[in-house]
Amino acid sequence: MGCIARPAKGSSMYDLVIANGTVATAADVYRADVGIKDGVIVALGRGLTGAAETIDAAGRYVLPGGIDSHVHIAQPSGEGIVMADDFESGTRSALFGGNTTVLPFCIQEKGEALRTALTDYHAKAAGNCYTDVSFHLVISDPSEAVLGQELPAAVADGYTSFKIFMTYEALRLNDAEILATMDTARRTGALVMVHCENEDAIRFLVDKFTGEGHLEPRTHATTRPVVVEREATHRAISLAEVVDVPVVIVHVSNGAAMEEIARARARGRPIVGETCPQYLMLTEDDLSGMDWEGAKFVCSPPPRDKAEQTNIWRGIETGIFDLFSSDHCPFRYDDDRGKLNPKGRNDFRHIPNGIPGVETRLSILFSEGVMKGRIDLPRFVAMTATNHAKTYGLYPRKGTIAVGSDADIAIWDPDAERVIRHAELHDAADYSPYEGIAVRGRPETMILRGKVMVRDGALVGEKGYGAYLPRGLSDRAKPPTE
Ligand code: DUC
Ligand code: ZN
Ligand code: ZN
User: Fold this and answer.
1) Which residues are recorded with the post-translational modification N6-carboxylysine (predicted)?
2) Which of 11, 78, 188, 294 sees the fewest Cβ atoms within 10 Å?
3) pTM for this prediction
């Protein structure tokens, strides 16, 4: 049964009522109508009448729009490489996947002023978004000016989180730089996200394996084993303890890194853990595909093995992970400027790192998690929306269904069955790493700040309705000793 819209006559108490659905938040699942006025939820109750439009959501779940707090869109990606998605295609794909807000990364190139990076990135997003967006910064050059003035000014302007890297020559910070950058987070109340892989250990392994003639995509995984992630996770957590700041450990791929998080929490350290669909659904064997097809799965940290998939499920079930994000980082496969660029088609070191996934994240967790009984609906909502809003200073405006919150709503048909086919997705890549996976449950109608953007699977909203969101400081960024 589809959702039916019924315009009412005369003046209206509500612009829109979503009637007869099952509402789920991170805390509850209950039957209620949702009344919306001026883009905001103004009523929750039974039998709401007096709406300009009513959507009948009988047999449907009415969920907060997904928030994907880890996506890469239109990001500079090195000489000759172009990221597949711009803000138009990336946010359109996100919307069809059940999201109403995404948080991409604004990268500071070495030597670049943060304000320049932000101005350039805003220019790419302005007028092009189908979802709301808000930027994390990436700090690659923590100079005195950046840590002393530029970063504090950016935090005051609502850029309240930033990512740092322990890998990639062009981005990595050494331990002294990590400490200094974390200290700025402590002073300003910003939240630090860390990509944990030990660059020197990776370099050692890359030299060893390429020296033995291994240039195929699979070697990407071989040269980034669990131990390099575990060591860096331990170090990031330890450095955060020295400075006394909370930290987000992003894209955790394995049980050993999860144990570092669990041990630190047992000591009272505030650690936010994030994982992603690739660590549930893919393995390193996918990087061994024929004809260089393994390049489609090259991302960092790499997918692991079946035992690690089980570990990641345990982390989702037991609360090690607060956040389930896509790490959407799309490059076209069969493209001179993508995975099969002239150097990348012969040598894994030149295959751009990252895979698409913003449109499939929610369906995968809904199908594999909720429909298979591994997690309940409130946990699904928490991991895909509410915790993202709480972690990154958007709660309670975003991430929940409550009176006063933005009317960002995804109406899900829990019984819809389909097989993931890239041909039916809305990004600008040319493949999905999840091609052929059967999923149950589909976000069929999407509402952003009260406006229907997707109705019964068809785009009806306009590009440019998505807005930029300055963010407040997050409670989760507070030093534990304060
Ligand atoms: N880190 C990410 O967060 N995304 C893609 C590649 C990477 O290294
Ligand atoms: Zn990363
Ligand atoms: Zn990422």
Assistant:
1) 163
2) 11
3) 0.97
Closest CA to 352 of 429, 284, 426: 429
pLDDT exceeds cutoff 80 at 1: no
| Residues 457, 349: Cα–Cα separation, whole Å | 39
The number of the ligand 1 atom at minimal distance from the alpha carbon of 299 is 6
For ligand 1, say whether the CB of 251 is within 6 Å of any of its atoms.
yes
Q: If pLDDT is split at 50, 70 and 90, which confidence band does 8 have?
A: very low
Amino acid at 356: P
Instruction: Write the pLDDT tens digit of every residue in 9-28.
Output: 457 999 999 999 999 999 99
Q: What is the DSSP letter of 355?
A: B
Which residue, by CA, sits nearest to atom 7 of ligand 1? 300
pLDDT the model gives residue 9:
47
pLDDT higher than 60, residue 6: no
At 364-384, the pLDDT tens digits run 999 999 999 999 999 999 999
Name the burial class of residue 306, with classes exposed (0-12), middle (13-18) and buried (19+) by CB atoms within 10 angstroms of its CB. exposed
Query: CB–CB of 294/286 below 8 Å?
Result: yes
302 Cα: distance to centroid of ligand 1 (angstroms)? 10
Spell out where 236-371 has E strands.
247-249, 271-275, 323-324
Ligand nearest to the CA of 168: 1
> How many Å is the maximal CA-CA distance in the chain?
77
> What's the gap in Å between 165 CA and the centre of ligand 2?
7
CB distance 354 to ligand 1 below 6 Å:
yes
Which residue has its alpha carbon closest to ligand 1 atom 5?
Answer: 354
Helix ranges (H only) for 387-433 are 387-391
DSSP structural state of residue 303: P
Give Cα separations from 230 to 235, 348, 362 (angstroms).
Answer: 9, 23, 27
> Distances in Å between the alpha carbon of 199 and those of 136, 202, 234, 438, 453?
23, 5, 14, 37, 43
Distance CA 199, CA 208 (A): 14
User: pLDDT value at position 3?
Assistant: 42
Q: Which residue's structure tokens are 């005051």?
A: 156
